[in-house]
Amino acid sequence: MKNKKLHDDLERLRNEINHLATDDIESRKKLNRIIGDLEAKLEKPDDNDDGLVKDIKETIQHFETEHPRATAILNDIMVTLSNMGI
Questions:
Q1: Could you give the 3-state DSSP secondary structure of residue 67?
Q2: Nearest 5°: phi and psi at 54?
Q3: How many Å separate Cα 44 from the centre of its chain?
Q4: By CB count within 10 A, which of 2, 23, 44, 70 is most buried?
């Protein structure tokens, strides 16, 4: 169930990326990298989650004012990861 929620949140984040301004290349890259990292985590869980969580937290701080919808989705992802013990 938690993995389904995470997959759903990743899909919401992909949709949000599609709505970002086309010239916001850095934001798109950062969000796509996080999506890739999260998908890799789902495929092959391991104990080293600190870097992933840190990257998501930093992205949330960076996006708070410019991309509030993406920030809300990232916060949802953080809650799901926390519930998964990550």
A1: coil
A2: -60, -45
A3: 17
A4: 70
